[in-house]
Structures are given as structure tokens and as C-alpha cells.
Amino acid sequence: MKRRDFLRSSTLASGAFLIPAFLKPFETMAMSAVSGYKNLVIIQLSGGNDGLNTVVPFGDDIYYQKRKTVAITPNEVIKLNDIQGLNPNLSALKEIYDQGWMNIINSVGYPNPDRSHFRSMDIWQTASNSNEFLSTGWIGRYLDSNCQTCQNPYTAIEVDDTLSLAMKGSKMKGIAVQDPNKLYQTTREPFFKDLMHGPDNNHLHEDNLGYLYKTMIETYSSADYIQKTSKTYNVVAPYPATGFGNQLKNVSKFINSGLNTRIYYVSLGGFDTHVGQQNQQGRQLKTYADAVAAFVKDLKQTGKLDDTLIMTFSEFGRRVEQNASNGTDHGTANNVLLFGGKLGKAGIYNNAPDLANLENGDLKYQIDFRDIYATLLKKWLNVNDGSILNAQFTGLDFV
Amino acid sequence: MDNLKQVKHLYARAGFGADFAQLHSQRNWSAKKTLRKLFKESEEIQPLAAITENLDLRQLRKDAAEGERKAIQELRNQQERSLNAAWMKQMSTTNAQLREKMTLFWHNHFACNIGNYYFQQQLNNIQRTHALGNFKTLLIAVSQSAAMLNFLNNQQNSKAHPNENFARELMELFTLGRGNYTEQDVKESARAFTGWAHNGKSGEFVFKAGNHDDLSKTFMGQTGNFNGENIIDIILANKQTAKYISTKLYRYFVNETPDETHVNQMADVFYKAGYELKPLLEFVFTANWFYEDKNVGNLIKSPVELLVDLNRRFYISYDNPDVLLQFQRTLGQVLFRPPNVAGWPGGRNWIDSSSLMYRIKIPSTILNAGIIDFAGKATPEDEAYLASQRKQQFNVIKRVQANADWNKFLEGIPLKAQREQVAAYLLEPPLNARIVAEVNKAADIKIMVIQLVSTPEYQLC
Q1: 8 A C-beta contact, residue B406 and residue B314
Q2: Which domain holds residue A123?
Q3: pTM, to two decimals
Q4: Contacts of B460 in chain A (CB under 8 A)
Q5: Is residue A110 part of a domain?
Q6: Second label for B443, Cα 20 to 30 Å away, from B123, B203, B316, B335?
């Protein structure tokens, strides 16, 4: 059989488009394998969210001493225990917390913290040490690990127009999909299909041209699948009419349609609050909480909450003492928020941040963020975390 | 490499590409002679003048009346559109290509995203004026611009409460790069910049002595009553700044992966020349390594470069320039709206599934109502797709409203030119068998040209 004929027949068999077979084995997982399928949703708050005004240590006097004008007053705080409570803009999460679907991990960070947005974000996304520069992301390396359930670009979807470093491995990368139908439509052009299987494949080198062709080939294999699968499900639950709400609504559509995707990545920006923090952060936190609460309730309704784990992080927290512009400057350790129907531990995971014991005015981290990643990889995604993180981390018991 | 190839490569990198007629007439020129012409043509400085009014954006505050807020918002959006269109047009039509290309470099190096387009235009004109001049002059002018003072919160940087934002970005992104200063350096230098502010209306720089901390500071091992200019002098005396800028220029003009030896050569030239940019650029564009095969046709065009390249080659004018803003948004690079202080990361970061598919579709959308004729064997599904494209072509034309001058383009092609020569002119990477096959299948030259600009190869320069 000629190669071209072979490609045509395999195309018929799979219903997908013409992709050189040696590059992309057609992976069609039986639907039965999908039940019990675990999803991980990662929410990135960009700009350095002020964790101390998110989960407020209202029981600690030092908090009020250091933050004369930007502190959340005790009567505004939604109290969770004697020391910590939620920013009032997170009120939608109270119900979720009371159901035992939320967990707060305090003082998460890493040694020798970097206060640059970009560098610290890279550290979080690549899971590197602070003096180590990696060009692959931790989810990208998960894709590279070639485990049984992570062999397609759509194993990891970023609901956005561009792909974050976290999603890029050395061989594989996730796929950025804001609107599945729009992406699908762009792959219909006959000339483009023709380009991808011309007389030679010498163009698939490691240089930029090879990179463009490889990306194109991956796009074809994913766009068709994502479009056809996701359109079988309509989200009925109400979501807030925000960009972020829409992104989570799309994730719900993907999850509920049975897409063989394991990791979803969503971002919300606007947290770099050097000036006039209360209004700005309040607005963003409300956008965040309203959408997450809608998402969690939606998944509960459709029976997917037990198979879903949501993790929220930001590249760093902010300095304990406020600045003169009613804002806060770049800091270090921060809280990580988890949501899910089957948490190993609900509520507040560890002690509130110790405001009396600072390092140059910044919080000291108590939990390495890679212990959280290790837990997600090992206990939730069932893969070898050590080879993906290039180091052994003990992990935690929130799963 | 023959002369024609060198000239073509130089125009692709130091400018936004040459048209066919120009390349043909300069085909025997040396790189040096071509470079002299590029510099000569860039002597002219044409500032942007699209924005004439500094809108009072305080009316956007929460307590303002709803109607007023809407009105001022609309005015601001209008300003954004006109400023964007004005620069796109200038890049697409100017002879001062090298100056505009460097302005685009500084636009990303000194990335700034604020809603005041009057200040944005001032900053852009500063970057254009000093684009090929002295880096120190440029750095000070940028640091004292209303746009940057606003963007990096130096307006809030005062003696009583220093704000470190500007001082940090100055070192991390504008001069030294990460790892070449300490947190203490950030804190101390922030104090030196206290009092740097601007006039709210005109945007002019003002030094507020009352806000300035004139006590002693210790910065990078030196102690004194430093002011902002002193700090900048200390930073520039450190050769690391020359190296950092050289690295970024290398990645912009030569190769995404910096070559240590070449970058060090550049830093030597730059430092010795007292941070004059012209000698540095002359050095790069006449270096043998600049013309090596691995440095040809291997840079991914930014979305703006892609659009400008297309506009220049096909002499495109837009009845509704807003469509260019729409394309920028789709491809992830809107001028004056960088994602953050670090600017657009560039290179392979431009490319992901969605953006790549849009990138290869946009040229035909602008030039040919979205239709890419197809000579191969079409399946029924392909036929249906092509029919649907033809059906909506009038809608596409109505939305895009772009006029390419095909006559001028075709007249520029010498009569005897072979198809493969035309292809080699349009695409920077060397032609391979696949492209040659497509070229020979196409029904006519115009169809072939549309196909060529719809390839991944055309994404590179």
C-alpha cells in the first residue's frame, strides 16, 4: 500500500484528517475508559495576588498594624475560624467552603524567592528552583512523559488564545483553544491540508520552519476532535457574564462532553495592585469567586465534581506592609486554593501565615509549591511525579 | 551568498522587506552600499501626530456620571484606533524603514501600556527620535516621559514612601537584566528617583524637589547623594548593560538563540562607542555571521511585521484601518497594548494552534477575499468548503476593505522572471520540494502568489 493510500484509509477509519501516521498515532480511547476520568483545572491569577487580603488574618493584630488603609476590617471579613476569613468579595465561595469542597493552603512558596513577575511566574510554571532556568513547563513535561492517558496535545487545553510556558514540553505541548468552532473552521482550507503532506518531510526539522509545520499538524489532529466532541454538550447552569466566567463555562462544556482532556488551564489578570488596591483587587476577586462558585455548583449538578480538582495560584503574594499609595508591593509566599468534591482535607490545611516572623518584611514560605504539584501528579493524575519535577517531593494529603 | 540574497536578507531584517522592483535594481549592490542607503533614508524623523488632545481620564473614575464615563471612554477608544492606524500606515509606507524597525524594537523594549494615548504618542515619538541615536539619551527621555512615569508608578514614588516599581524594571528590563543587581540596589535606587514626575496636562517632566530624598544612598557598591541621573550613569558604566541590549538586538535582528561570541563582539562595539546605536547596527549588518545560512529565513515575524510586510509588498491601502487593529488582536500583538512590562516575548511564543492558523489565512483574506485556489484533487468536503468561501467573498471584501495594487506588484516582476524566482523573492527560507511543487501546480501567477503568502514559510523572515 502506498503511504498516501494508507493515510487515506486510516483517515476513513478514524474520521480525522490527513496526518502523517508516523507522527501522530490516532488515539481513540473507548468511552468506557472515560468514566472515572480525573480532571485537573488550574487557575492562574496573574500579577501577584495579595493573599493576605484574599484570606484575611483578621485575628492577628500585626495585620492591622502593617496595613493602616488597605486592611479588610474585621466586620467585613467572612470568618472561617478565629484567625482567618475570606475577603467579602469572595462571598460566593462561602457556600462552597461550608460544603467541604474548598481547601486553603497557607504560605506556599519556594526558597530564595524572586520578586519579578516574569521570573517568578516562570518558576511556578516550569517548577524550577529559583536559580534554575528551564524552557519546559511542568504540564508540558507531563505530556512528554508519554503516560497512557497523555499522548495528545488536547490532553492539556488552555482556554485562551495563547499557550503558557507551563503547557510546553520539549516534544509535546498542550493546545490553546478559546473557541473550538473557530479553531476547527480554520483547518478546513484544502490548500493547507495539501501543504502538510507534500512530496517530502524534510521540513520537519528542529528549526523554526519545522516548528511551524509540527504545530500545524498537531492543530489538525486536535481541532477536529475537540470540535466534534464538545459540541455534543450544552452547558445549562448559569455563569456570570464575564470573560473569566465564560472561560470556566467552556471548561465545563469540555469536561461534560467527555473530552479526553486531563488538564485545563485558565488565567485571570489584574492583580498587580501597587496603587488603590482595595477597589481593584476587590473587583478581580469578585470576578474570580462568582465564576468559580458557578463552576463548582455546575460540576456538582452534572456529577463531575468528584472527578475534578481545581487549583488556584499566583506567582507571588505581596509584602506584608502596605505602601503609601494604598497598595502593596511584590512579596513572596502566598496561599493556594483548592476545590473539588473529593478533597482529602477540607477547610484550612495549615497554620495561618506567621506575621511576627518575617524575612525582610516578607512572609516565609512553609510549603514548597512543588509539593503541591507532586501531589497532583502522583495522587490525582497517577504518574511518576519525580521524573516530571526532576526531584522528589514528599507531597501533601489534600487528595 | 550572492549579492541579491544579501540585499534581500538585509531588507528583511533591517527593514520590513524590499519590493521586487527595488530588489531587482539593487541586485548587484554590496551589503555596505545597501546599508548606507537604509541609514540615509532613515535620517528623516517623521513623528506621529494623530493625537492632539490630552483627554482628562479622571472622568473615568467610579464616581463620575455614567454618561460622562461612556463619552470619555468612546473618545479614548477613538484615540487608540487613530494612533494605531497612524503608526501602521507609517511603517507600511515610509522610506525610513530602519528607523521604524528600531522604533518597533524600542516599543517592545520599553513596553508601556497606559490608557492615555496622548502620552503614548509622546513616548512613541521619543523612541522614534532616538531610535538610531544614543542609548543613554533615549533611556533618560523614556524614563522622564509621562507615559513611563505613569506606567511604572513613579508618580507615587516619594521620599516618605518609596515605590520600587520603576527602579526594579529599569534594571531588570531596560538595562542590566535579571541577576545583575540586588534587592538592596532596587530599594536604594528607588529613593534616587523620588521626585521624578510630570505635568498632568502637557506631560512635560518636572522634578519635585520636595518629594526627593537627597540623603545618601549606597548603590552597587558606591555611596553618595545620588539622584536619578547618577543611578543611570552607574548602570551604564556597567558593561553588562551593553551586553544586555546587544543580546536583545541580536535576538531581534539575527537569531532567537544568541551566539555568545557574536553578542560579546557587539557589546564591545556598543560600549566603546559610548552607547551610540549606529556603529552597533553597522557592525551587525556588515558582520559575516549576519549572512550565514542559519541566520537567514529563520526568524518568526511578529504579527505587526507580518502585516506590514504584506502591506509593503502589495502596496495595500485600507478604507477602514480598524481592520488592522482587529488582525493585531487576533494574532496577539496590539500596538501600544503590550501584555505587561516585559513586552511581547516574541519568537516561538507568537505561535500556537489558533494563531498559526489565523496567520496563514490572513494574507489571502486581505488580498483575495479569503480565497486560496486549490489545484490539487479536492474531496467533496473540500469542494463544499471552497464553494462556501466563494459565496461569502463579498462579505469578506466589505469587512476588510483593503485595496492591493496588483498592477504595481506585477509590473515590478521582470518579464523573464521564472516562477521559482518569484517564490524566492516572496519567501525568506530556501525553497524546498514541496513549495516548488505547489508553485508549478498553480494556474497562474496571482494564484501562485496568494498560495505562497499562505504558507508557514511566509511567516519567517
Answers
A1: yes
A2: 40-389
A3: 0.80
A4: 208-209, 212
A5: yes
A6: B316
The long-range contacts involving A8-14, CB below 8 angstroms and separated by at least 24 positions, are: none
Burial call B301-314: b when 16+ CB within 10 Å, e when fewer: bbbbbbbbbbbbbb
Q: Give the total number of structural domains in chain B.
A: 2
Q: What percent of chain A has pLDDT over 90?
A: 70
Nearest CA in chain A to B374: A191
Residue B16 above 90 pLDDT? Answer: yes
Distance from CA of B438 to the nearest CA of A (A): 8
Q: Which residues of B touch A189 (CB under 8 A)?
A: 361, 372, 385, 454
Whole-number average pLDDT of chain B = 94
Q: Is residue A30 part of a domain?
A: no
User: B15 to chain A, minimum CA–CA distance in Å?
Assistant: 20
Distance of residue B352 Cα from the nearest chain A Cα, in angstroms: 6
Q: What is the ipTM of this complex?
A: 0.94
Residue A289 vs residues A245, A399, B185, B378: alpha-carbon distances, Å: 10, 22, 38, 50
B442: nearest CA partner in chain A:
A191
Taking residues A252-268, what's their average pLDDT? 95
Answer yes or no: is B241 within a domain.
no
**Nearest residue on chain A to B378, judged by CA atoms?**
A190
Q: Which domain holds residue B318?
A: 303-459
Written as one string, the DSSP assignment of A73-125 is PTTTSEESSSS-EE-GGGTHHHHHHHTT-EEEEEEEE-SS----HHHHHHHHH
B415 inside domain: yes
A203 — pLDDT class (breaks 50, 70, 90): low
In this structure, what CATH number is given to the domain that contains residue A355?
3.40.720
Total domain count, chain A: 1
Give the pLDDT band of residue A147 (cuts 50, 70, 90). confident
Task: Tell me which chain B residues have a C-beta less than 8 angstroms from the C-beta of A176.
Answer: 352-354
- Asked if residue B345 is part of any domain, the answer here is yes
Q: Which residue has the cell 499566583?
A: A314
In chain A, which residue's Cα lies nearest the Cα of B383?
A: A190
> What does the pLDDT look like over B112-123, one tens digit per residue?
999 999 999 999
Q: Is residue B104 part of a domain?
A: no
